Amino acid sequence: MGAAVLPILFFTSLWAAVGIGGSIITPHGPQRQLIQCILMLTAGCCWLFWLCCYMAQMNPLIGPRLSRRAIQIIAESWNMPIKEG
């Protein structure tokens, strides 16, 4: 299971638009550079957070731990008997 290209391109372009576009349309004033810096840092951090969450779903470190009884119930409900071996 690998990464799909479309979500990565979409969210990269979305956060690039927020960081670059937001800094371009910032009104002139005494705090313009500060606002531009805040917008770019926010976009970069949000993109990085999204990327980490997206990549963590590709290979989760922990999975569900089911008891033997829960596995038996699932097997019975799916009509797949467990073969004792």
Automatic annotation (TrEMBL):
Membrane topology: Multi-pass membrane protein
Residues spanning the membrane: 33-56
Keyword terms: Hydrogen ion transport, Ion transport, Membrane, Signal, Transmembrane, Transmembrane helix, Transport
Coiled coil found in the keyword field: no
Main location: membrane
Domain of life: Eukaryota
Function: Subunit of the V0 complex of vacuolar(H+)-ATPase (V-ATPase), a multisubunit enzyme composed of a peripheral complex (V1) that hydrolyzes ATP and a membrane integral complex (V0) that translocates protons. V-ATPase is responsible for acidifying and maintaining the pH of intracellular compartments and in some cell types, is targeted to the plasma membrane, where it is responsible for acidifying the extracellular environment.
Similarity section: Belongs to the V-ATPase e1/e2 subunit family.
Summary of subunit composition and partner proteins: V-ATPase is a heteromultimeric enzyme made up of two complexes: the ATP-hydrolytic V1 complex and the proton translocation V0 complex.
The protein, known as: V-type proton ATPase subunit
Gene it is expressed from: LOC108612522
